[in-house]
Amino acid sequence: MAAWFYVLLHFIVAACCDRVSVERRDAHFVKLPVVHSTNRNVFSDIWDNKRAITTVPLANRSDVAYYAKLAIGTPAQEVYVQLDTGSFELWVNPDCSNLQGSADVRFCQAVGHYNPSSSSTAVKVAGTKTLRYGIGSASIQYVVDNIGLADTDAQLEGVQFGVAIDTVDEFSGILGIGHGENVTIRYKNFVDQLADQGVTDTKAFSLALGSKNEEEGVIIFGGMDTGKFTGTLKTLPIIPAEQSPDKVPRYWVNMTSLSLTPPSGQRKQYANTSMTVFLDSGATLTLLPTTLANSIAADFGATAIDANGFYSVDCSFNDLPGTVDFAFDGVTIQVPYNELVRELQTSFGTQCFLGISPSDEFALLGDTMLRSAYAVFDQTNNAIHLAQYVNCGTNEIEITAQTNMSATAGDCAAPDLRATSTTATSGSQPTGTGTATADNDSGAADTGLPNTSTNLAGSLRYSGIWAVLLSLVIGSVVV
Asked: Global pTM?
């Protein structure tokens, strides 16, 4: 009798645990973790292998990617896809065999693959297409199947997406969450289907990528989390495609100014920084006009780009309490130095570069900026709602047609962005003096270190690192 009791108790506990692990939705919103691909808790098989850190393409690709997990087909097949606000379609199954390096192949395999023939609900759709990105391309065959949002009870039926026939330089599938049906494509994309099938009440989603140290964030389709920002959301209209720089429907908004607040606290505003920008979670770096990018880089000690188009900087900036400030109508997103400076582990040791790159084609705010922002992408109202990212807990609420986004306040206190440690590394010492004046674009700002350039191009010439990074900067921009 006792044995039967313990067996029964085991099944009861197991059932309870299963229920706890699945998010039950009491409202019309659903959340997914957004995982940085250096997160060892998720991709342990890759990062526990010490050889992976010296594999150039993987080291760079994993530095840029944020992933969400989908459960596709019947029975469900779990697949990680790169979360991308800069493109419009979902596709899976990159070709891992044409990647260079064993670590690259392992990472590609680790994200999972979907086999339509193993799904009883899969239907092949006539038509193929080639999707071209800033890095690589994917030739796809369209399929219709059911998609679940992993670890939730949300289930979408009859979703059209692409299954790759061939890919070039792609390490994972991509979940494009830009504008869909009758805007960029002729069928309902993922965001369209969520609203069409009643999972959400609106075509809006909120995104918090999380800090570099957190290595994960959250996306909530149809909802938001007031425990992830401070202040009141400010509403910015999405600029119509015909008025945008490249005439493509994206999440374009107006940036009013850009400035630097160095450790000295003497703010410097850069000239001619009112411009149209778009928000792209699929791009690692932030692209700004060349003149502006050069001015910012000079204040970080880089007198010019290296041979591959990047600004090499001293890693000590990661320990200094300064910010680069992106101002919009009613809200300024302060990006700490340690979020803007990118670290790369290589066989040469830790190399650092500025998370800004020059581009005279268009301005793009990538992950180096977006990690410091809480953004609600609202296709229903053609708006972006923006606030400073802070993580002070969880308070998820539904977005409905009646929600007054501009009156929605975060639960978090304003962050103390000047509390960063000022302990310098790599032998450089903060100067402790300032030369910039408020709202003055003349002279170099006191960023806290001597205004000298560290050019790493020579030592990296044989590794190919910067060449790979160059293609990753605009990795999600469909051309």
From this structure: 0.83
